[in-house]
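Sharing a chain and its predicted structure for anyone who wants a worked example. Both blocks are below, sequence first, tokens second.
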Amino acid sequence: MGSVITKEDTDEWKNARKRAQAHAYESPALSAAEGQIIKKPRQINNRRTKARVINLKERNLDMLRNDLILRNPLRLIGHENEAIVPQGGFGAVLARAGVGKTALIVQVALNTMLQQKNVLHVSLDDPVDKVNLWYQEVLNSLASQYHVRQIKELWESIQMHRFIMTFKVEGFSVPKLEERVKDLTEQQIFNPHMVIIDGLPFDERLRTPLEGLKAFSESHRLHLWFTVTTHRHETPGADGLPVQLSAVGDLFDAAIELQPEGKKIHIRCLKGGPEDSEGCDQLLDPSTMLIQES
């Protein structure tokens, strides 16, 4: 693995810097036009208490976020995000190319963002614009499935909890990732709770880099997810895991595989799933790439 990294000052970086700079100057605006109700302060012993502001728009968005959190894709297969991958832990979504790995991992990321926790999405395959389009398309599908009307407001309320970082595959390395994350955190631009590494090739040379990522994840107390590309007709390893994961399976707390079968895509837990194996055999809708509820 080399150490060359893309240097473009992407919109994601620019917007993050603006948010960081503006944060110190923010002051709450009180406006009835924004759906806020301001109760008049009461006088107690000739002293006024602070005005209590109830923002109806924010309250409605909170209710909407909570509703979508209950539809967490990992909850549908028996787990919460943090339960299946603990702090410092690894999780993997495995599938053949084009089956739906990125769509599923984006659903996991959106659930974390809905909880107002930060997701750093590291893409080794796609540019920022394409990754951003994945998030918007998956969120639009969720909004359509659950009849969400305030999709624009919802997206505006959670997009600040996601940061996209791109590397060339040959330029990705653990030190470079640590350097970029350090830049984000020290400048108070972005402090990740979850990191997704999308597009890392899993082969026999990956053991040492993964051990470095494990130490990085543990030191920063992150929940770290990977997408792993498998191939048709490969024989699983002795532990039953796909060959891409078999040699490094001890580093992973959870592994979820997408298995096409005719017009259906099964979601199966290979590691870290619920004791009831039937609880981790759900279907991914090929048309929307969303998990189908039972």
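Comments welcome. The two ends are 43 Å apart (CA to CA).
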